[in-house]
Amino acid sequence: MTLIQIHYFLETVKQGSISKAAQVLHVSQPSISAALKNLEHELGINLFHRIKMRLSLTREGAYFAEQGQKIIDAADQLVFDMKEIAQKHNQIRIGVPPMIGTFLFPSIFDAFNEKHPKIQMTMSEQGSLMVQQQVKLDQLDVAIAVMDLKKNDGFEVLPITRTQLWFCVSPQHPLAAEPDVVLETIGNYPIILFKDDAYQSALLMNCFQQQGVDPHVLLYSSQLYTIKKIIAKGKAGAFLFKELVAMDQDIIGIPLRDPIEMDICLIWKRGRHLYNDTATLIRFVKSVFQAHPV
C-alpha cells in the first residue's frame, strides 16, 4: 500500500467516479483503476460496490476512507513540519526583557555570533513574564528571563547570573545621597514601574503590599530609554538592575536596605524538540556561565 494509492482512492470517493478523479488528478483512468485494483487485492477486500459502472463504498471502504484520510493528513503535516524545520535552520527565536537586553544579552550575542556567525537570531523584547508565556506557546525557542528557580514548571532552566534591584534617581533627588533606602521611604515619592509583563513589577508590588505601602506610581512603561530619561529629569525614581547604574552617569543607584535579588536564566520549554541551532546556543551559554553558578 502506498500513499499514492490512498490518494487515488480518496479522490475517487470524493468525485464519485474514476473518470472524474482522473481529470482532477491529471492522470489516466487506467492508472487509477489499476491502483485501486492492486490496493483491493493487497487488502483482500472490496472497497467499492460496482453496479452498472457506478461506484459506492462498501462498509470496509468507508472505514478505509476514514482512516486513509488520517494517513494523508498526517503525511501532509509531516511535510509541513519538515519544511518549517528547514526554514528555521540557522535561526533562533529568543525573548529578552528590556533591562537584560541592555546589559547582559549584547555580550552573549557578540560572543556567540563571533563563534557561530551563520546562525541568526530574531529577538522579541518583552517582559520576563511575557517571554515565559511565549516560550510555553512555542512562539519562542528560548528566552533570557528573570526566573523564580523554585517555580519553573514547564521549563528547562539554566541559571546565568544573579542581580539586585536598586532604586534609581537623579543626582538632585532628595534620596540621592542616601547609602541605602527602604520601601517605606520610597513610598513617599513618585516612581515608575515596568508594565505587568515584567517579573520585577509583580515582585515589587508584592513587597510594597507586605510592608503596608501604597506606592505612588507615576507611570507604567516597558521602554527603558524613556524610564531612564524621566529619572534623569528628576520626575520620578525607578527600580533597575544594579548593573545598569554604572552605564548611565545621569542616574544614581541606591541599594535597598533589604535587598531584592533575582536570578536571570536561559529557559526553554521542557520536552520540546530542540533544533540544532537552539541546542548550540544552550551549550554555548552553559559553557560560558557554568563556571559561575548562581
Outline, from the CA principal axes? elongated
Biggest β-sheet strands, sense, barrel: 9 strands, mixed
Distance between the termini: 57 Å
Number of distinct beta strands? 11
What's the CATH C level of the largest domain? Alpha Beta
Report the average pLDDT across residues. 91
Helix content: 40-55%
CA radius of gyration: 30 Å
Low-confidence stretches: none
Written account of the structure:
Helix 1 packs across helix 2. Strands 3, 4, 5, 6, 7, 8, 9, 10 and 11 form a 9-stranded mixed sheet that branches. The protein is an alpha/beta fold and 294 residues long. The longest helix has 30 residues, at 59-88. The protein is elongated and about 100 Å long. It has 3 domains: 3-83, Arc Repressor Mutant, subunit A (Orthogonal Bundle); 91-160 and 263-289, 3-Layer(aba) Sandwich (D-Maltodextrin-Binding Protein, domain 2), CATH 3.40.190; 162-262, D-Maltodextrin-Binding Protein, domain 2 (3-Layer(aba) Sandwich). Strand 7 (190-194), helix 9 (199-210) and strand 8 (216-221) form a beta-alpha-beta unit. It contains 12 helices and 11 strands. The model has no long low-confidence stretch (mean pLDDT 91). It has helices at 3-15, 18-25, 29-43, 59-88, 98-103, 105-115, 128-136, 183-186, 199-210, 224-232, 242-245, 276-289; strands spanning 48-51, 54-57, 91-95, 120-124, 142-147, 155-169, 190-194, 216-221, 237-241, 252-255, 261-269.
Short description:
This protein is an alpha/beta fold and 294 residues long. It is 46% helix and 23% strand.
